[in-house]
Amino acid sequence: MTTSKTAAPARLFTQVAADRQTGALVVGGHPGGAVYVLEGRVIYAESPAAPGVGELLTASGRLAGRTWQTALDQGTSTARVGRLLVEQGHLTQGELELCVLGATYDAAYFALSPASAPVEFLGGAMHWLGPIAHIDPAAVDREVRRRAKMLDDIFPDPRIDTAVVTPVSRPPRERITLTAPQWELLVHADGQRTPADLALLLGRAGFATIQELRRLAALGLLELPEVRAEAPEFVRLPRARGTAVDARRHRAGPVDSPAVAVVPVVSGVRPAAPDPPPAPPPPPVVAEDTNANGTVYRPPRLARRKPGAKLPKEVAAEPAQIHPGTDEVLLKRIRTALRGLR
Amino acid sequence: MPGVDHCLQEAMAIPGAVGASIVDYTTGFPVATTGTAPNSDHEAAAAGTADVVQAATSRSLFVSAVPHDLLEDLIITTAGGYHLLRLVHTDFDSRLVLYVWLDRQQGNLAVARRRMQKLADDLIAT
Asked: Pro residues bias located where (chain A) (predicted)?
């Protein structure tokens, strides 16, 4: 049920939907997200790269931050936030449905489009918004794939989607024509904000933001992010180049000649230790750490690591991720709450 | 409370209506559909709708220089039918258009246009 594994989110999603399950498919990685299903139908999706219903409604000024916050306080525990907003007359049913549909498809793109990401399914999880829309999962799946292709048709460079947005300081031609959303993006791109930041700031759908950014890039109006060897990660562990060497062991294999095998060698680090106790060739393999002569090099307890070598598995293993999505959700809610107080 | 489905039902009640949908015109995706679509393909119809709206909103020919003189609707007539596109202006960020396909014999363009205007307004007004 709650198995976290690295897989294609879209494939697990199809499976969950086919089994008519209820719960949340939480996708880790960057940007990650979560897709909520109720008996196999998609009711909501969220992703840090896509403004949710609350962000869309408050950033546009459609709802005051306080109104939204009150609805959250009253309805979160019973998963009735959406219904409350309509019942209290803050939104029409049509507005709410359209907003939920838009936000869901938007977030689903970010959650389901990665080819591979840590995915887990939390059975029984329900979104606090409550079931507003019931979307055919096949339509979501198709739309996600269609959107990915749409972006590549505009400008096939996925780095645009995540990298900090920097407009070129000098346009590449004499005359340029911008649409209103493009203008908005360029005006707010300060060389620090990522597409997700801009979407959130402007209250615009994440996908629509990326779409316009790709168009701007195609027009040559954005600095392209520098080429990186690999996809950017938040935490970069030292690149594995060598492997750990057990200092207590002889070097194995072909360098087995007795002259070398005399001393326990810290391979590679100290090439020629100046004090090799010269001749007494001990019986080669056995009992080397109990080499009783006092001058002998005492190997450290741990194997030495070559510079840049990979950490041993148990040290380097990532801390167990519990629910990659839930922190984001919590942060989002805190942010909305703070905005409400402003 | 009129929701999306109710709005589409009402659209189908317009004399001569054959099909109706609400389309996101940046992605060309049918958010909600009912009835039949040209060539029985709502998704293709939505993609085409999106192209038409994009052309009208982004090509300078149709973009008014007067502030807030926004696009309201687009009407395409064919020998057999009318295709009406009404932009739905929500306060929050969305790019939606209400699309209704009318039979030419039974449909009345003026009536349909007024009804769609009301539908689009009711959908988002309290």
From this structure: 273-285
Q: How many domains does chain A have?
A: 3
> What confidence tens digit (pLDDT) does each residue in B61-110 have?
666 677 777 888 899 999 999 999 999 988 888 889 999 999 999 999 99
The answer on A149 and A38 residing in a single domain is yes
Task: Give A 150-169 residues with CB within 8 A of chain B.
Answer: 150
Assigned domain for A175 exists? yes
Q: Cβ of A50 under 8 Å from any chain B Cβ?
A: no
Q: Is A252 exposed, middle or buried (0-12, 13-18, 19+ CB in 10 A)?
A: exposed
d(CA A109, CA A206): 9
Are residues B92 and A95, on separate chains, in Cβ contact within 8 Å? yes
Which domains does chain B carry?
4-124 (3.30.450.30)
Using CA coordinates, name the residue in chain A closest to B6: A94
Q: Are residues A252 and A138 in the same domain?
A: no
Q: What is the pTM assigned to this prediction? A: 0.71
Q: Give yes or no: residues A18 and A106 share one domain.
A: yes
Q: What pLDDT digit, counting tens, does each position of A130-140 carry?
A: 999 899 999 99
A143 Cβ under 8 Å from any chain B Cβ: yes
Per-residue DSSP letter, A7: E
Radius of gyration of chain B (CA): 14
Same domain, A261 and A132: no
pLDDT tens column, A196-252:
999 999 999 999 999 999 999 999 999 888 765 555 555 555 555 555 555 554 544
Domain holding A303, by residue range, is: 242-309
Q: Is A211 on the interface with B (CB under 8 A)?
A: yes
Residue B6 CA from chain centroid, whole number: 15
Do residue A179 and residue B58 have CB atoms under 8 angstroms apart?
Answer: yes
Contact state of B29 with A105 under an 8 Å Cβ cutoff:
yes
Alpha-carbon distance A139 to nearest alpha carbon in chain B (angstroms): 10
